[in-house]
Design brief:
It contains 4 helices and no strands. The chain has 94 residues and is mostly helical.
Length: 94
């Protein structure tokens, strides 16, 4: 796998996590604000992405988890969720 393909896959993983978390963040914004809102959104997005990973694992088995492409995407998703959850201000109302 080339560096360009790995970077592209990492970007796609980051954008997927950001999109899901952004949608959840927007929906729960009516009831919760600030950092708890970001933590809840990250937890829901993480649960969704974990479910998708589990579904892929069921189809592909252990060999699927050893693929470098998948590991890059998982790492990018984890970084995106942590970045967005921890970057949110405590008193943010947006």
């Amino acid at each position: 796998m080339s560096v360009g393909v790995g970077a592209g896959m990492a970007l796609l993983g980051f954008m997927m996590a950001a999109t899901i978390m952004g949608a959840v963040y927007f929906v729960i914004g009516r009831w919760v604000t600030g950092r708890p809102r970001a933590f809840i959104a990250a937890a829901i997005a993480g649960a969704y992405l974990t479910g998708r990973l589990h579904q892929a694992f069921e189809e592909g088995g252990w060999d699927m988890l050893l693929r470098p492409e998948l590991l890059i995407v998982i790492a990018a998703i984890a970084v995106a969720l942590a970045f967005f959850a921890l970057r949110t201000d405590r008193g943010s109302t947006e």
